[in-house]
Amino acid sequence: MLAAERHSKIIQMISESGVVQVEELAKVLDVSLMTIRRDLEKLKQDGIIERCHGGAVIKREVSYMEKRTLKIEDKIKIAEKCASFVKKGDAVFLDAGTTTYEIAKRIQNIPGITVITNDLEIARVLLESDAHLMICGGMVQKSTGSMLGPFANQMMEDIRTEIAFLGAMSIDDNFNVLTPTINKAVLKRTICKNSSRPYLAVDESKFGKQALMRINHLSDYTGVVTNKSLNAEEEAKIKQMKINMIWV
To answer: Locate the HTH deoR-type domain: which residues (predicted)?
Structure first.
Protein backbone atom coordinates (compact mmCIF):
# COMPACT_ATOMS: atom_id res chain seq x y z
CA MET A 1 0.00 0.00 0.00
CA LEU A 2 1.34 3.43 -0.98
CA ALA A 3 1.84 6.12 1.65
CA ALA A 4 -0.97 8.24 0.18
CA GLU A 5 -3.37 5.30 0.43
CA ARG A 6 -2.36 4.69 4.05
CA HIS A 7 -2.86 8.35 4.90
CA SER A 8 -6.35 8.31 3.38
CA LYS A 9 -7.28 5.18 5.33
CA ILE A 10 -5.86 6.63 8.57
CA ILE A 11 -7.91 9.83 8.16
CA GLN A 12 -11.02 7.77 7.45
CA MET A 13 -10.54 5.64 10.56
CA ILE A 14 -9.92 8.63 12.81
CA SER A 15 -12.90 10.53 11.35
CA GLU A 16 -15.22 7.59 11.99
CA SER A 17 -14.14 6.80 15.54
CA GLY A 18 -12.72 10.12 16.76
CA VAL A 19 -9.46 8.53 17.93
CA VAL A 20 -7.29 5.57 16.94
CA GLN A 21 -4.29 3.86 18.51
CA VAL A 22 -0.97 3.22 16.75
CA GLU A 23 -1.23 -0.52 17.34
CA GLU A 24 -4.70 -0.66 15.79
CA LEU A 25 -3.57 1.22 12.70
CA ALA A 26 -0.51 -1.00 12.27
CA LYS A 27 -2.66 -4.13 12.47
CA VAL A 28 -5.36 -2.93 10.06
CA LEU A 29 -2.87 -1.57 7.52
CA ASP A 30 -0.41 -4.46 7.98
CA VAL A 31 2.66 -2.27 8.47
CA SER A 32 5.15 -1.67 11.27
CA LEU A 33 4.58 0.62 14.25
CA MET A 34 7.44 2.80 13.00
CA THR A 35 5.73 3.26 9.63
CA ILE A 36 2.48 4.30 11.31
CA ARG A 37 4.30 6.76 13.55
CA ARG A 38 5.91 8.35 10.48
CA ASP A 39 2.51 8.54 8.78
CA LEU A 40 0.95 10.20 11.83
CA GLU A 41 3.79 12.70 12.06
CA LYS A 42 3.26 13.65 8.40
CA LEU A 43 -0.50 14.09 8.93
CA LYS A 44 0.20 16.19 12.01
CA GLN A 45 2.58 18.43 10.04
CA ASP A 46 -0.16 18.83 7.42
CA GLY A 47 -2.53 20.06 10.13
CA ILE A 48 -5.01 17.21 9.71
CA ILE A 49 -4.57 15.37 13.03
CA GLU A 50 -3.33 15.91 16.57
CA ARG A 51 -1.27 13.27 18.36
CA CYS A 52 -2.54 11.93 21.67
CA HIS A 53 -1.16 9.31 24.04
CA GLY A 54 -0.51 6.23 21.91
CA GLY A 55 -2.52 7.43 18.92
CA ALA A 56 -4.16 10.36 17.16
CA VAL A 57 -7.37 12.41 16.98
CA ILE A 58 -8.80 14.33 14.04
CA LYS A 59 -8.04 18.05 13.83
CA ARG A 60 -9.66 19.14 10.58
CA GLU A 61 -13.33 19.93 11.11
CA VAL A 62 -16.01 19.11 8.59
CA SER A 63 -17.01 22.20 6.61
CA TYR A 64 -20.30 23.98 7.21
CA MET A 65 -21.82 22.86 3.92
CA GLU A 66 -20.80 19.24 4.56
CA LYS A 67 -22.44 19.37 8.00
CA ARG A 68 -25.68 20.83 6.56
CA THR A 69 -26.33 17.59 4.67
CA LEU A 70 -25.47 15.17 7.50
CA LYS A 71 -28.35 13.64 9.51
CA ILE A 72 -30.65 16.50 8.60
CA GLU A 73 -33.85 14.73 9.71
CA ASP A 74 -32.36 14.05 13.15
CA LYS A 75 -31.23 17.67 13.44
CA ILE A 76 -34.71 18.94 12.59
CA LYS A 77 -36.30 16.76 15.30
CA ILE A 78 -33.76 17.98 17.86
CA ALA A 79 -34.27 21.59 16.75
CA GLU A 80 -38.04 21.34 17.10
CA LYS A 81 -37.73 20.06 20.65
CA CYS A 82 -35.23 22.79 21.57
CA ALA A 83 -37.41 25.50 20.06
CA SER A 84 -40.28 24.45 22.32
CA PHE A 85 -38.23 25.53 25.36
CA VAL A 86 -37.88 29.17 24.24
CA LYS A 87 -40.26 31.62 25.87
CA LYS A 88 -41.49 35.07 24.93
CA GLY A 89 -38.85 37.70 25.76
CA ASP A 90 -35.99 35.25 26.35
CA ALA A 91 -32.36 36.14 25.68
CA VAL A 92 -31.13 33.13 23.70
CA PHE A 93 -27.62 32.09 22.76
CA LEU A 94 -27.27 29.93 19.65
CA ASP A 95 -23.91 28.22 19.25
CA ALA A 96 -22.38 27.92 15.81
CA GLY A 97 -23.62 24.79 14.04
CA THR A 98 -26.16 23.26 11.71
CA THR A 99 -28.50 21.97 14.44
CA THR A 100 -28.62 25.43 16.02
CA TYR A 101 -29.22 26.83 12.52
CA GLU A 102 -32.41 24.75 12.43
CA ILE A 103 -33.33 26.05 15.90
CA ALA A 104 -32.91 29.63 14.66
CA LYS A 105 -35.44 29.07 11.88
CA ARG A 106 -37.99 27.80 14.41
CA ILE A 107 -37.67 30.54 17.05
CA GLN A 108 -37.14 33.60 14.87
CA ASN A 109 -40.67 34.99 15.30
CA ILE A 110 -41.19 34.32 19.01
CA PRO A 111 -42.16 37.76 20.39
CA GLY A 112 -39.54 39.83 22.16
CA ILE A 113 -36.60 37.40 22.01
CA THR A 114 -32.99 38.50 21.71
CA VAL A 115 -30.65 36.07 19.97
CA ILE A 116 -26.89 36.16 20.48
CA THR A 117 -24.87 34.00 18.11
CA ASN A 118 -21.34 33.47 16.83
CA ASP A 119 -22.61 31.88 13.59
CA LEU A 120 -22.75 33.97 10.41
CA GLU A 121 -25.38 31.76 8.75
CA ILE A 122 -27.67 31.98 11.78
CA ALA A 123 -27.23 35.76 11.77
CA ARG A 124 -28.29 35.87 8.10
CA VAL A 125 -31.45 33.91 8.89
CA LEU A 126 -32.38 36.28 11.72
CA LEU A 127 -31.71 39.51 9.80
CA GLU A 128 -35.20 39.42 8.29
CA SER A 129 -36.93 38.18 11.47
CA ASP A 130 -38.63 39.90 14.39
CA ALA A 131 -35.88 38.80 16.80
CA HIS A 132 -33.38 41.25 18.23
CA LEU A 133 -29.98 40.11 16.97
CA MET A 134 -26.57 40.40 18.61
CA ILE A 135 -23.37 39.09 16.99
CA CYS A 136 -20.67 37.56 19.15
CA GLY A 137 -17.60 38.98 17.42
CA GLY A 138 -14.09 37.68 16.90
CA MET A 139 -11.93 36.02 14.28
CA VAL A 140 -13.99 34.17 11.65
CA GLN A 141 -13.29 30.49 11.07
CA LYS A 142 -14.20 30.54 7.39
CA SER A 143 -14.70 26.80 6.99
CA THR A 144 -17.53 26.82 9.57
CA GLY A 145 -18.70 30.44 9.43
CA SER A 146 -18.20 30.85 13.17
CA MET A 147 -16.50 33.54 15.23
CA LEU A 148 -13.97 32.60 17.88
CA GLY A 149 -11.05 33.85 19.91
CA PRO A 150 -10.34 36.24 22.80
CA PHE A 151 -12.79 38.95 21.66
CA ALA A 152 -15.65 36.45 21.52
CA ASN A 153 -14.63 34.98 24.88
CA GLN A 154 -14.51 38.40 26.55
CA MET A 155 -17.88 39.42 25.15
CA MET A 156 -19.60 36.28 26.41
CA GLU A 157 -18.02 36.66 29.86
CA ASP A 158 -20.19 39.77 30.28
CA ILE A 159 -23.48 38.42 28.87
CA ARG A 160 -26.13 36.43 30.73
CA THR A 161 -28.88 34.56 28.88
CA GLU A 162 -32.06 32.82 29.98
CA ILE A 163 -31.38 29.91 27.65
CA ALA A 164 -28.54 28.65 25.46
CA PHE A 165 -28.27 25.89 22.88
CA LEU A 166 -24.81 24.48 22.30
CA GLY A 167 -23.30 21.76 20.16
CA ALA A 168 -20.21 19.59 20.44
CA MET A 169 -17.98 17.60 18.14
CA SER A 170 -17.67 14.62 20.49
CA ILE A 171 -18.90 13.05 23.72
CA ASP A 172 -16.70 10.34 25.18
CA ASP A 173 -17.67 7.16 27.04
CA ASN A 174 -17.59 9.00 30.38
CA PHE A 175 -19.92 11.68 28.97
CA ASN A 176 -17.31 14.42 28.81
CA VAL A 177 -18.14 17.00 26.13
CA LEU A 178 -15.23 17.59 23.74
CA THR A 179 -14.16 19.88 20.90
CA PRO A 180 -11.04 20.14 18.69
CA THR A 181 -9.67 23.55 19.76
CA ILE A 182 -9.00 25.55 22.91
CA ASN A 183 -10.84 28.61 21.53
CA LYS A 184 -14.05 26.63 21.10
CA ALA A 185 -13.67 24.96 24.48
CA VAL A 186 -13.29 28.27 26.34
CA LEU A 187 -16.19 29.94 24.52
CA LYS A 188 -18.63 27.06 24.98
CA ARG A 189 -17.68 26.64 28.64
CA THR A 190 -18.26 30.35 29.26
CA ILE A 191 -21.66 30.36 27.55
CA CYS A 192 -22.80 27.29 29.48
CA LYS A 193 -21.72 28.86 32.79
CA ASN A 194 -23.49 32.16 32.10
CA SER A 195 -26.85 30.80 30.95
CA SER A 196 -29.72 30.00 33.32
CA ARG A 197 -30.80 27.06 31.15
CA PRO A 198 -28.02 25.67 28.93
CA TYR A 199 -28.96 22.79 26.65
CA LEU A 200 -26.70 20.55 24.61
CA ALA A 201 -28.22 19.68 21.22
CA VAL A 202 -26.43 16.67 19.72
CA ASP A 203 -27.37 13.75 17.48
CA GLU A 204 -26.31 10.18 18.17
CA SER A 205 -23.24 10.37 15.89
CA LYS A 206 -21.43 12.57 18.44
CA PHE A 207 -21.37 9.92 21.18
CA GLY A 208 -18.51 7.52 21.87
CA LYS A 209 -15.90 9.71 20.18
CA GLN A 210 -12.82 11.64 21.22
CA ALA A 211 -11.54 15.15 20.50
CA LEU A 212 -8.59 17.11 21.81
CA MET A 213 -10.13 19.56 24.30
CA ARG A 214 -12.62 18.97 27.14
CA ILE A 215 -15.40 21.56 27.46
CA ASN A 216 -17.38 20.18 30.40
CA HIS A 217 -19.68 17.25 31.24
CA LEU A 218 -23.23 16.32 30.25
CA SER A 219 -24.27 16.88 33.87
CA ASP A 220 -23.40 20.59 33.47
CA TYR A 221 -26.42 21.12 31.19
CA THR A 222 -30.07 21.66 32.06
CA GLY A 223 -30.77 18.98 29.48
CA VAL A 224 -29.21 17.02 26.63
CA VAL A 225 -31.52 16.95 23.60
CA THR A 226 -30.66 13.95 21.45
CA ASN A 227 -31.81 10.89 19.52
CA LYS A 228 -29.10 8.74 21.11
CA SER A 229 -30.22 5.28 22.27
CA LEU A 230 -28.60 4.00 25.45
CA ASN A 231 -27.71 0.48 26.51
CA ALA A 232 -28.29 -0.74 30.07
CA GLU A 233 -24.78 0.20 31.21
CA GLU A 234 -25.08 3.71 29.77
CA GLU A 235 -28.50 4.19 31.34
CA ALA A 236 -27.09 3.28 34.75
CA LYS A 237 -24.22 5.77 34.34
CA ILE A 238 -26.59 8.52 33.17
CA LYS A 239 -28.79 8.00 36.23
CA GLN A 240 -25.83 7.94 38.61
CA MET A 241 -24.39 11.13 37.12
CA LYS A 242 -27.80 12.86 37.26
CA ILE A 243 -27.78 13.75 33.57
CA ASN A 244 -31.10 14.93 32.16
CA MET A 245 -31.51 13.26 28.78
CA ILE A 246 -34.32 14.60 26.56
CA TRP A 247 -35.03 12.20 23.73
CA VAL A 248 -36.59 13.02 20.37
So the answer is: 3-58
